[in-house]
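Hi W.,

Here's what went into the run:
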Amino acid sequence: MKTAFALVMLALVASIDGARAQDAPRPPAATLTQPKGATQPVDARGFIHRWLVLEPVPVAGRLTEPAVQEALKLGALPGTGDALPKNGDTVTVNGDSYNWHALDTTHYNVNLYHFAWALSKPTSNVLFWVETAVDAPREMTGVRLAIGSNAASRWWLNGEPVIALNDDRQSVIDDGVSRRLTLRAGRNVIRAAVINGGGATDFCARFLDEADKPIEGLSVSLLAR
Amino acid sequence: MLRKILPCIAVAFALPAIALDGEIIVHDPSTVIADAGRYYTYGTGNGLPILSSEDGWTWRRSGSLMSAVPGGKAGAEVLARGGNNTWAPDIIHVGDKFFVYYSAPGTQPKSAIGLLIGRTLDPQSADYQWEDGGPVVWSDGVEDSNAIDPGVLLGPDGRMWLSYGSYFGYIRLVELDPSTGKRRYPERPPVNIAINSEASILIHRDGWYYLLVTHGSCCQGANSTYNIRMGRSRKVTGPYLDNMGVDMIEGGGKLFAGSRGRHVGPGHFGLLDLGQGVEKFSLHYEADLDRGGVSVLDIRPLLWRDGWPVAGDNVVAGTYTIESARTGTVLELAVQGSPVGGFRQRRGGPPGSGIAGSGSPPGGSPPEPQVGPPVADQEPAQVAANWPATSDVRLAPAMLQAQQKWLIAPVAGAGGYPGAPYYRITIAGTERALTATSGAELSARPFSATPEQLWRIDQLTDGTYRISPKAVPGTDAVFALSAAGSSMPTLAKFDPASDRQRWLLGAP
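Here's what came out:
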């Protein structure tokens, strides 16, 4: 009996410690930094490094086509025009408030698990909204948006749906590729929803030309226009 | 006949494809050759009969070669060295000339190989005429040679060679002058390179010369034992060794093509290099069992494996998965799939692991693992009713599901290309057909036999397939099915150096 009591107490203390640890600020994500400078070019492989990321919205976390559609309804984002939010903006989604974070990733991909964990936010059964704006020096035709996402995702370019990936999947470079698109001269807004069931979650994105070569010479700006 | 054959082969996936369409009866055909957008071959028979084709699939008899030779027959010296039969020609295009080498046997092994020289293969052309070039080689009826069955090669170094012979002794090799088509060194004796065979021909690839010959007996219909064998050598003059190191001059020869399916007795290999990694070979079968056992022409894919040519097969009607060699994902209709056998609840960890639902805890007696009854294949009728009306296609991991099963079947009367007809590619059990759309993209739409829904499927030398629409709306450019990424099929110009446009056809 004494042994049982001791075990219960031990578990209680561990639980309280766990809660304190949960509440304590966590170190920032090692791969994500605050943006510096007004614009940032895509890297030599065409990957976009600067993004606005909304704190994760809880959803069911199932990843079939109907489940993703349901998650998008549940986590619908108010306002889907060309205007980007600003760092620190707050939006209400499904009755709760979430903050936008402007981030640069040091890797080719954006690690959403790092992002949410550092904020003590859930990483499983969640939907992440991400946005950015890419400036093209001229109109470019025959271009494809190419992304990888863990897990399911939906992508829009200038408001048009261009990529839909379902099911539990790893983030593989050029996993989802759009049809041939036209990048208009100047600002092009990318918006995406990444839905994660459990475990790691991340994404990467770039544009490819007609020969599947990465497009360089694009720059990213999160300034409101 | 074709319509009668198709239902039979639709369920016989292991069989080779049907032979060509049209008037394809021929024996000992020459290498198939193209000129001014038309394909030609010439065979054994009175005056060397011509078969020609606009697309390489449907063939027509088109008179004889000798009818365009002054005098209408072999030259006097050829007749004197050999005889007045006209058999087993071969043809090559060098510069602005076509050289035809033909067998002119008398009483074998007294025979000769004659030369005809022309500028065009088009009988309708004002320039169409064949000039007698006289005998090139001959056998006197006593020596260990029977000078018939010529095969000609223009090597990578610009030197031209003629191999010939048939059973009475050796297969022999002489060098030709590419400017005249005649022997370059008539004073030099021929080189013996093989024995006990006929229908020899040389090809070259990656520093190797390959000697292909036909073994066995001809001319007995389905009782013919013809089969094509080969050896290789770093030097054109040999020795030509087979895969076991046996010299072909001592009877060696690795099998290249034997009887299969409904075709008995393949013989008389000829290379048809279409470029961009697409190689084919022409041949005849001694007996096509679907055509009453007559001898017919065929064109099949030529593959290469471990330094040896391999006889490929044209695609047979059937249900396939279409897998990207680039990504390993398969083409599917963009609908939510259902697991084969339906959804099943996971039942915890391994027996004894202690995970809920996993059976007895450690220390107890673990239950015997039990297999279940077989799970039936997923047929479209089981799941297609739940599919939305989407026409999108995409690539996804192979899951053996109905939206990933494509029926590939010839389209009667739609023409074709060297070796095969155009195919339709539809989700099995539906009329949703793979369709090329404007902007060189893809969709799955009701089949109506439009050019955007007719597909050319060429097996490449590595065994994968190039899959090309007959037409893409809004452009005359030629496109091929391409994997733009793991999940996105599209159309793009074919790049033979890339896996993007290479596809594997598999049994789902």
